[in-house]
Write a structure and sequence with these properties.
Dihydrolipoamide Transferase; 7-stranded mixed β-sheet; OB fold (Dihydrolipoamide Acetyltransferase, E2P); single chain; Chloramphenicol Acetyltransferase; about 425 residues; alpha+beta; 4-stranded antiparallel β-sheet
């Protein structure tokens, strides 16, 4: 029998939440086949089975948060017999020569005392393991769990299932009809209309683990760093033309599309070399200057947000940056990121323009001291340096910075440098 434990997903991680079982007891699993999903404050991911065999026991329910290295399941390896059920102990015979003590007669039951309902016998038809809470509720309310259809993983009966069963069972029965009076004295029967059930004014549901972690991190960031945002408008006409002329050839050669994001990442990496304080972090009263430029790219998920990191981004070309962005974003949405791919970022970029926003004031991803946001590219009339009016493709870049370390002048110089690199783009793309 092989124990499956809650893994440690990063150095600072001490616990994880088991969000979903992908297998149920009795299912066969292959080695490295996804067994369950977990969520931590760094990443949501699937955990594979360490061996091939049969999932024997599930020891932690969905939604439970446990410490790392806690045993959450057991897998019986191929060819390994399942653990036999414990046998009932048999009564040993009394030693020879000794007379068994006569049993004392049980007292007659007191008919005036209330009779406690007996707990229903456990049914062999109950699917999956049953939590102590569910068993206690069944015992207190004399419920046969075999009568309840479980909605949990693998048909497991949850607390909500028991409560729903109780609610359906406690519907008041129709009162017995009173004895009929003589026809002459019987009053006409009055039927009260049943009021329609009113619709609920609100719906309450708990936050997901990821949403709770995002909320905690956002509050922590705002409490830690005095946020200031500077916004610059960038003329992207030149890059729009470059991308438009190369995107078909780029897609055919590399198998993925060329977007505007790698241009911004490349410009930011070059500007970070010139303004290393924007690539720094604060530790107590010390400034930590990072020699590596690890740029985090915010990725929107169905249930939240995650920031995978492109390591050594300053050493990558447009093709390399685009490949990394596509790879990390795809694996982020399919829950395939590794712990070290969401840690160690030194600077972040968020593309809120992909949803049509012109500009915003993004929140810093701690322990970074800055984040660059880019808006949607729009065509608009612009007055050129020679006082002519031309249609140009423009967008806003917004740098939010930690005012404890970065002054407004430095923030504007950095953002102006990003703007200059983008407007005067001269680097080869293919």
């Amino acid at each position: 029998m092989t124990d499956v434990v809650m893994p440690q997903m990063g150095e600072s991680i001490t616990e994880g939440t088991l969000t979903k079982w992908l297998k149920k007891p009795g299912d066969s699993v292959e080695r490295d086949e996804p067994l369950f999903e977990i969520s931590t404050d760094k990443v949501d991911t699937e955990i594979p089975s360490p061996v091939a065999g049969t999932l024997q026991d599930v020891l932690v329910e969905e939604g439970a948060t446990v410490e790392i290295n806690t045993v959450v399941a057991r897998v019986a390896e191929e060819g390994e017999a399942a653990a036999p059920a414990a046998e009932e102990p048999t009564e040993e015979p009394a030693p020879a020569g000794e007379e068994p003590e006569p049993e004392e007669p049980e007292p007659a039951p007191d008919e005036s005392a209330p009779v406690e309902p007996a707990a229903p016998p456990a049914s062999s038809e109950v699917k999956g393991p049953v939590s102590p809470l569910v068993r206690r509720m069944a015992r207190e309310h004399s419920i046969d769990l075999a009568l309840i259809t479980g909605t949990g993983a693998g048909g497991r009966i949850t607390k909500r299932d028991v409560e729903a069963y109780l609610a359906s069972r406690q519907e008041p029965a129709a009162p017995a009809a009173p004895a009929k009076e003589p026809a002459a004295a019987q009053a006409p029967e009055r039927v009260e209309p049943v009021p329609p059930a009113g619709s609920a004014k609100k719906r309450v549901e708990p936050m997901s683990t990821m949403r709770r972690k995002i909320a905690e991190h956002m509050v922590y960031s705002k409490q830690t760093s005095p946020h200031v945002t500077t916004v610059h408008k960038v003329d992207m006409t030149n890059i729009v033309k470059i991308r438009g002329g190369l995107k078909a050839q780029f897609k055919e050669r590399y198998g993925f599309s060329l977007t505007y994001l790698p241009f911004v990442a490349r410009a930011a990496a070059q500007a970070l070399r010139e303004f290393p304080v924007v690539n720094a972090s604060i530790e107590g009263t010390n400034i930590i200057y990072h020699n590596e430029m690890n740029i985090g790219i915010a990725v929107a998920l169905d249930n939240g947000l995650i920031v995978p990191v492109i390591r050594n981004a300053d050493g990558l070309s447009i093709v390399g940056l685009q490949r990394s962005i596509v790879d990390l974003a795809g694996r982020a949405r399919s829950r395939q990121l590794k712990p070290d791919e969401v840690t160690g970022g030194t600077f972040s970029i968020t593309n809120f323009g992909s949803f049509g926003s012109l500009f915003a004031t993004p929140v810093i991803s701690q322990p970074n001291v800055a984040i660059l946001g880019i808006g949607a590219i729009v065509k608009e009339p612009v007055v050129t340096p020679d006082d002519a009016i031309a249609i140009r493709s423009t967008y806003y870049v917004a740098l939010t910075f930690d005012h404890r370390l970065i002054d407004g002048a430095v923030a504007d110089q950095f953002t102006s440098r990003v703007k200059q690199i983008l407007e005067d783009w001269s680097e080869q793309v293919l």
